[in-house]
Write a sequence for this structure.
């Protein structure tokens, strides 16, 4: 049995993808997967589905969703028997999974190993393998909840941090080309992460793709202005300056510390994207 949360929520039994049912049931499963084996309280499950306006039957609906999921993953489980995967705890429910069955835990294991190795080439390979597990945004298809629920937002942040760490190991070691596809994919999923975009820009430049790097800077600058009404921050500006002056070092790459919130551009009124 394989569980996936790094992209569309899925359960696979061998080669077959199981039908997870309706949106409420998939949200319950997604939150259990996002918590990766930790107990999720009933109140958290209710909040994830209904936010501030749960019906009187909310708890019963969650229980029924859990029951349906349990029958889905263990169809031959006797009535009232304790299953292998979905376990009732005093405070809620736990989905018992490991790195061999959940993509999130495999991702974390690979990132941890990448951070522990002293071999840059091996570290980059592990980071690339970890980032390759992402098939889209966390819990794709369950928006807008997936974009606002803290458990899902935290997973998105883990992906961005891993991509930045991958670049920080690859660029000083002259391994930009190896990491560019993973960086490009991560940057497409988080287009307003300036630190990540800066690293992609430098990786492109280090691989001799200066025109692409300049195009990327212009696109990110325009996106920041259009969507947030801000100008590029220090990391992105520093990367652009290095590109302009052909200062793409082969070693010792250091990014300046990010500053706090920048002042909005005082310019014409615009229609903001919410």
């Amino acid at each position: 049995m394989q569980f996936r949360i790094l992209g569309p929520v899925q359960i696979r039994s061998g080669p077959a993808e199981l039908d997870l049912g309706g949106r409420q049931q998939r949200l319950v499963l997604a939150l259990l997967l996002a918590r990766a084996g930790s107990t999720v309280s009933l109140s958290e499950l209710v909040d994830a589905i209904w936010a501030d306006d749960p019906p009187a039957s909310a708890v019963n609906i969650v229980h029924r969703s859990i029951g349906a999921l349990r029958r889905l993953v263990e169809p031959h489980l006797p009535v009232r028997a304790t299953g292998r995967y979905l376990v009732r705890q005093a405070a809620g429910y736990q989905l018992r999974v490991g790195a061999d069955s959940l993509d999130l835990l495999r991702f974390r294991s690979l990132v941890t190993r990448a951070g522990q190795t002293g071999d840059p080439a091996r570290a980059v390979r592990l980071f690339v393998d970890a980032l390759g597990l992402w098939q889209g945004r966390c819990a794709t298809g369950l928006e807008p909840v997936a974009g606002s629920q803290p458990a899902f937002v935290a997973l998105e942040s883990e992906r961005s941090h891993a991509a930045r760490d991958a670049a920080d190991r690859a660029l000083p070691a002259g391994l930009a080309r190896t990491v560019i596809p993973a960086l490009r994919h991560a940057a497409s999923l988080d287009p307003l992460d300036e630190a990540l975009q800066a690293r992609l820009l430098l990786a492109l430049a280090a691989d001799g793709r200066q025109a692409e790097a300049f195009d990327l800077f212009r696109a990110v600058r325009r996106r920041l202005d259009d969507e947030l009404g801000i100008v590029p921050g220090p990391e992105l500006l520093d990367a652009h300056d290095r590109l302009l002056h052909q200062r793409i070092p082969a070693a010792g790459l250091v990014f300046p510390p990010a500053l706090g919130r920048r002042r909005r551009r005082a310019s014409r009124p615009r229609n903001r994207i919410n």
